[in-house]
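On clarity, I found the account of how folds are encoded harder to follow than it need be. For illustration, here is how one protein appears when written out as sequence plus structure tokens:

:::
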Amino acid sequence: MKTVKILSVDDEADLELLLTQYFRRKIRKGEYEFSFAHNGLEALEMLLKNKDYDIILSDINMPEMDGLTLLTKINEMQNPALKCIMVSAYGDMGNIRQAMNNGAFDFATKPIDLDDLSVTIEKAIAQIEYIKRMEQEHQQLEGIKDDLAIASQIQQSILPRIFPPFPDVADKLDISACMYAAKDVGGDFYDFFRIDNDRIGFVMADVSGKGIPAAIFMAVSRTILRTTAIQGMSPSECVTRSNSLISKESYESMFVTVFYGIYDIRTGEVTYVNAGHNPPCILKKNGTVEELPQSMNLMVGILDGFEYPEDKCKLEPGDTLFTFTDGVTEAMSADFQMYSDARLHRNLSGMAADSCQQIIDTIKADIATHTKGAEQSDDITMLVLKRLQ
């Protein structure tokens, strides 16, 4: 700790000599620095001018402003690291008790036992150091909190948020998406982009882990997938190439589940690779719900050199492709019941005529109903694509 600054407040002039003589070694070493005031009013003026005092050693009975009044004024400064040691005549227990009830750190009685006072000062210093450490840690936590808020805004800003995203084909295709992070930042992400006039690429992904590590890995994975995909590669080539790159960036065996598809606006055909991700659902125009086959592929980032085969499905006019992360079906209620695939399918079956945004809003509201205020345990992400004609 830096030099401890002690303000002694007493109308007896000989106390100044006693303190400076007794603590002379600590004063010479720069450990203690004493200042002196002769009454509470003078002390208060010094405190207002110099706010870095650590300990106030104050007599209770003084002219102009007594020690109890000074203690009240010090409390109004709301500085928990400023400790007051009160001094009064032996037997003046009424004032001493009041001082302790009003927040004094400790007390000493006259005639002052300087050895005992030294121990009391050391105890006060230990408390001051503790409080200052806590204040510093609190400031650091507040800084981290502010940084996380900014990181959350940045993370949301890199995800597409303008709907409809492709106005020139708005009569043929409806698409909407959302990501609700369980913490300040998340590991889920979605993406979609134009490959050419007739094809649109879209991604639904879930990074292993939570919080800041997952968010950083999410940003890396999203950048690699998008950069690779917009080159026009097939889904198989894109995910295989991305896996090779992401495997080299993986830290402590982190991985990402990925569903990457290319939608052909003219035909409604979806060519896709599912790399360990939840199987999306096709909501047919007649209200039936079909789940795409379960993926047998490795997650991306696990093994460099793995080849990802691609599959195909087709959306007829009025059909909707619903992609999501496991934060949807595994959303937990207060009594530890999961939302489940079955409940998701039941709800989807009644929304065949709804827009993509309506589907997202309805599912999100039903998840909230299911969880009934239970803490969100995982990121909730959905991307919905509907063929209009």
